[in-house]
Design a protein that fits this description.
Blueprint lengths: L11 E7 L7 H11 L4 E7 L5 H11 L3 E4 L13 E2 L1 H6 L4 E5 L2 E5 L2 H9 L3 H4 L3 E5 L3 H12 L5 E6 L2 H15 L4 E5 L5 H6 L3 E4 L25 E4 L8 H8 L3 E3 L2 H16 L5 H9 L3
Parallel strand pairs: 1-2, 1-3, 4-6, 7-8, 7-10, 8-9, 10-11, 11-12
Antiparallel strand pairs: 3-5, 5-6
The structure holds NADP nicotinamide-adenine-dinucleotide phosphate.
């Protein structure tokens, strides 16, 4: 039966809180899976500006909403409003999944699972090496945590528009994980060519290049890339950002954010429903929709 035909008093509601929200394929991915598994659940997008975040969380409890994903720009700020936070989410300092368990809000970070699965084939290349992360928001935090904890990287460079945010990430991971080899750099500085070129892995964890601003890129320094590098853009919409196109033209191995997106979604799905989302099948279905 079609999802919308079976909505009734027993329908479990889940969704996503973000601002903006129109780029997100999460409603599509989760509703498709509910339909395939014949679950009486629906996933809705909620466009919530920061000023309404606290009230939105109260509404989850009032309305009996089972859980939500959290996306730009709320992943860090939301932690203060939760009753319980998982060990990983607490170490990351960001939450992307909330479960409403009898009126208590539990926070998790499934972005970490998505990053691990995506980078696993490159584990040996990355270990002990230098990596550059562009961005210092919620997703960048999950990247830093994962690279330090699970990939044992040697050196991290953070490049971000707002320098205080990079500095605060550097201090945070020194204190939380005793990682003391982080340098911070300004976004778009010409000197960054050296930083990029000496990195085995470069990750875009900003929203620069995200739909609809697909002509934007976090670096216009074409000489930043070389064939020895792995270049990962967390963005999946579009599938190949301008950043990835430039890296590819210079011979780097490129990775988009789609696998990370599906894996993080599958982990959230499991937390809400206790059911398993088929990652490969979902990946193939979504690829057809871009
Ligand atoms: P966030 O917490 O809002 O952080 C946004 C980051 O982007 C910050 O570093 C911000 O810099 C930077 N930024 C945004 N607009 C900018 C601009 N116009 N110029 C320069 N810098 C800009 O967001 P987030 O949750 O970390 O998400 C970041 C990106 O990762 C998004 O594109 C999101 O879609 C993607 N993501 C993908 C997945 C996946 O599953 N594939 C999962 C999570 C996130 P400032 O600090 O200077 O503001």
């Amino acid at each position: 039966m079609k999802l919308t035909n079976k909505i009734n008093h027993e329908t479990q509601i889940v969704g996503i809180l973000g601002h903006p929200i129109k780029h997100s394929y999460s409603p599509r991915m989760h509703n498709m899976t509910f339909e395939n598994q014949n679950l009486n659940c629906i996933y809705l997008p909620f466009d919530i500006p920061a000023s309404n975040l606290k009230d939105a969380l109260k509404s989850l409890i009032t309305l009996g909403i089972k859980g939500v994903n959290v996306t730009i720009p709320h992943k860090e700020r939301i932690i203060q409003y939760l009753d319980h936070v998982s060990e990983a989410a607490s170490s990351v300092g960001a939450v992307n999944t909330i479960v409403n368990q009898s009126g208590q809000l539990y926070g998790y970070n499934t972005d970490v699972d998505g990053i691990i699965e995506t980078l696993l084939p490159y584990k040996n290349d990355i270990a002990k090496n230098s990596v550059t992360i562009i961005g210092a928001g919620g997703a960048a935090r999950a990247v830093l945590y994962t690279l330090i904890r699970h990939f044992k990287v040697g050196k991290i460079n953070i490049i971000n528009r707002t320098e205080e945010r990079s500095e605060s990430l550097k201090d945070y991971f020194l204190e939380k994980m005793h990682f003391n080899n982080i340098d911070v750099y300004e976004l778009m500085a010409k000197e960054n060519v050296e930083v990029y070129n000496s990195s085995k892995l470069i990750i875009n964890a900003t929203s620069i290049g995200l739909f609809p601003n697909i002509d934007d890129t976090p670096t216009d320094l074409d000489d930043s890339f070389n064939p020895n590098q792995i270049v990962f853009d967390l963005i999946y919409n579009p599938l190949k950002t301008k950043f990835l196109k430039i890296a590819e033209s210079k011979g780097a191995t490129i990775i988009n954010g789609l696998k990370m997106f599906v894996v993080q979604g599958a982990k959230s799905y499991e937390l809400w429903t206790d059911k398993t989302m088929d990652v490969d099948k979902t990946l193939n279905e979504l690829k057809k929709q871009f």
